[in-house]
Design a protein that fits this description.
Blueprint: H1 19-30, H2 41-51, H3 56-68, H4 73-93, H5 99-116, E1 132-138, H6 145-156, E2 160-167, H7 169-178, E3 183-187, H8 194-207, E4 213-217, H9 227-231, E5 235-237, H10 240-243, E6 269-271
Parallel strand pairs: 1-2, 1-3, 3-4, 4-5
Antiparallel strand pairs: 5-6
Helix pairs in contact: 1-3, 2-3, 2-4, 2-5, 4-5, 4-6, 7-8
Amino acid sequence: MRDSQHGGQGEREAGGVSSLARSVLARLSQRTVDLDRLPARSETDALARAVAAADPGQFQALRDALRRRRVSEAELVDLYFPTVARKLGQDWADDTLGFAEVSIGLARMQAVLHDISRDWFSNHGAGPDSATALLLLPEGEQHSFGALVLMGRLRRRGVSVLLQTGATPDLVQGLLRRRGFDCVLLSVACEEKLEQSARLIRAIRRTVEHPVRVVVGGAVLERCADVARLTGADLATSDADVALSGVALTGVALTGVALTGVDGAARRVQRGGA
């Protein structure tokens, strides 16, 4: 496991910005950011290192550089942070980052998310005819960052979203009896939560009187090829555009939204057997 004082973040220069960060700043200053594609890996890798660095100035320097290139705060959250979060998780799994560094990185991104997303965490933009989505994190699921990013982006596009953490069958059935939803999205990180997700989906099927699309997304798709079949979901995908296709989303543009909080470069779709 990497020591937090290890010199692998690049040689430090005056002003507290690493040489790696300075090289990325130079590249950013030389080109126009194309927001129709995912960020370059070099950019998200640099952000991952900067956000987890002991010196907060490294992250702030890169954030300022993106702002100067007219990358909005919303685009920072939507396009960069999901990939950075996955990078931090992979580095921890690979033992190249320590728990403290990963925790610092996620805490900094979460702080930015809450700071710039206050309005996104209400349904004020949703009208009476808006599509409605129930976003579930199964009980015990600790990986909520991606779900928060997804919720904010869907709400900014006029979808009424209810996020329920710690979801149990009884809790979900109570929600569904009180109000209707056009779709239910489950965010699942690990295979250990698949059986729990299957119980949730069975409870959903027993409760709703009309067909409702149920979609599973999350990091579990990277580890398991049969998520839709194992859980009974209609679909398993990391792309919210795919997940919500066919749902009444009048006027809502969702292209490129990652259901899992992970970049949607590979549109991996698993369909249920039903």
